[in-house]
């Protein structure tokens, strides 16, 4: 079993991507433009020019921010300690979804904020599918049902999901019979199966999306540099942030970047950058949590159909999805201390295997153990400290 090191997620970039797409309706022809500046040129630009905004963090959110800033007429720069999309942004479930579980919470708890979040995410899902069809596509996802009443309950929930989407809807959800479900997903456990609900969400190549955003920003004139660590934030005589002291991770060279403002897009490392600005005593706002995914052979799922376990043993959900001729399953939520090389525990992997195992035919359960796992990957997500318990039970919104 091998561990995936590096990769990305596009949460928080869809709106930026669509904004850039909308401003590029004329489909710029980059073939006649000079190539993206090389590393030496990027470093020289960072050292010699003053920027309107410096973005720290080259994940999906950071790359989206620098692209948006640059295309709005600002002079923007970005530095990333590792490689672009080498962190959480490449370790997602590979979905672009509105959050069907958040819609359920919004209805049952009469929570308008969660409802608004779902509406926004569904609109952004359509934006990403329209703006980057080469990196994203619609994916049908099946919810197998083993109790009659749940069949109509889940169908009503997915129809509501479609209604909330409305013009951004991909396709209408549908009820399918037991025989059709087995035909579509032959690995399903057939005993007591009543039927299934199929709804539609988006799937994307998260790592390529992140890199595309960074390259697009560089094409537009932004200074973008990976393997560059921020050592400290610089302040002017009045105490305002005036840039950052950076170190080239490849050569060890230390240099200053001048900027009128700084965007902290470092995800689970948010508090470490905040402490550079406000001191070690600043109250922490980030509660990092690891999300584990395992990658299995492609024969465990059809190439054009995913599966959702809507109610795991601890009240969360598990996805079981086709991806690049393999099958991705996850995820988990385990509080952690952020670090660059997170590991998955045996307990987390066994949890994912155990939850999915209950949906698979008994004839193949005997082979469903560690030996069939090709790799696993672990992303560290940033939640607000105000969320208590499992972070995934709380909606993800923006904070500035």
List the helices and strands and how they pair.
Blueprint: E1 2-3, H1 14-22, H2 39-48, E2 50-51, E3 53-56, H3 60-71, E4 76-79, E5 95-96, H4 100-109, H5 112-131, E6 136-145, H6 148-165, E7 174-176, H7 178-184, E8 195-204, H8 206-219, E9 223-225, E10 228-235, E11 241-248, E12 254-259, E13 262-264, H9 270-278, E14 286-297, E15 306-309, E16 318-323, E17 326-330, E18 334-335, H10 346-357, H11 362-365, E19 375-384
Parallel strand pairs: 1-19, 2-12, 3-4, 3-13, 4-9, 6-15
Antiparallel strand pairs: 5-8, 6-8, 7-8, 10-11, 11-12, 14-17, 14-18, 14-19, 15-16, 16-17
Protein described:
The chain is an alpha/beta fold. The chain contains 11 helices and 19 strands. The strands form 3 sheets. Strands 1, 5, 6, 7, 8, 14, 15, 16, 17, 18 and 19 form an 11-stranded mixed beta sheet that branches. The chain has a 4-stranded mixed beta sheet with strand order 2-12-11-10. Helix 3 runs parallel beside helix 8. The two termini are 40 Å apart.
